[in-house]
Known about the structure:
Elements: H1 4-14, E1 23-24, H2 27-33, E2 36-41, H3 51-64, E3 71-75, H4 79-90, E4 94-100, H5 105-113, E5 117-121, H6 124-134, E6 140-142, H7 149-166, E7 171-175, H8 180-192, E8 197-203, H9 208-215, H10 239-245, E9 250-254, H11 256-270, H12 276-289, E10 297-302, H13 309-315
Parallel strand pairs: 2-10, 3-4, 3-6, 4-5, 7-8, 7-10, 8-9
Antiparallel strand pairs: 1-2
Helix pairs in contact: 1-3, 1-7, 3-4, 3-7, 4-5, 7-8, 8-10, 11-12
Amino acid sequence: xxxxxxxxxxxxxxxxxxxxxxVMSSSLxxxxxxxxxxxxxxxxxxxxxxxxxxxxxxxxxxxxxxxxVKQVVANSxxxxxxxxxxxxSRFGIDSTIYMPAYTSKVKVQATAAYGAKTVLLETRAMxxxxxxxxxxxxxxxxxxxxxxEQVITGQGTATLEAIQxxxxxDAVLAPCGGGGLLSGTLIAAHGASPKAKxxxxxxxxxxxxAQSLRMGSIQSLTATPDTLADGAMTPFVGNITFxxxxxxDEMYEIEEERIVYWTQWLSHLLKIxxxxxxxxxxxxxxxxxxxxxxxxxVLIILSGGNVDQVTELxxxxxxxxxxxxxxx
Length: 328
């Protein structure tokens, strides 16, 4: 199993390439809920999401290991695509990204703008099959969006930085798609703040991780999930990440209305752009904190801030800002 030392090694590799993102809080939110809630703001990371960390670490590690690579390939519905394209360009490597047709247009455009060749396919299954075939080419390396140890340790650097800034916390919460961020979060938290609970959150409409944990084996979604949290639409977790997800203290399944609610409120309170996936751990924290005795210090990983026009309109089709946190 990976350890805090692997997270620390990843941090050294990528420090000169990425932003050390800020930790923010809202005095109003803390007052309303009665706890100290801190946010690691990956919305202002390179490419607008935490994914830059994992992609950059994977490619830097390839160079460190002297593995000959002329091209990297990846499969992604958005932020990982941009991250691999950006990281590959920084290291002078070509990249090809396979994406499902339902991917946000702004994320497809951004991926191409970072220099990648983008290939859109009808279904996620077709995307996954094509990237496997492409990875068989000579001097080509597949950077998996989550089921890759160097991706996992790269993602974990966000939690390590935040705990270095905050000191020990009572709980760390992060969203779950394929489990890469949440696995890295768990490894970093166990090493840097051993007493902290580590809690995941995923959409109820895309709850393959929760189903997998209940069943004790990896379960797959049978159709494209209907959720605004496009960063958590992964159909199944990885065999690597699943081993870490088993160590979580809790996994919350979040209803769509609550995703929208906290997307609006976090954007309003923190004055930053928040994508719906980032709202998942806030609702999980809200539910978890209601069960606690005494004031708690909580760290939430805000995973990204890339939102296209279609999603933006859905987020704001109904106003939730007249329903205060703690009263709704």
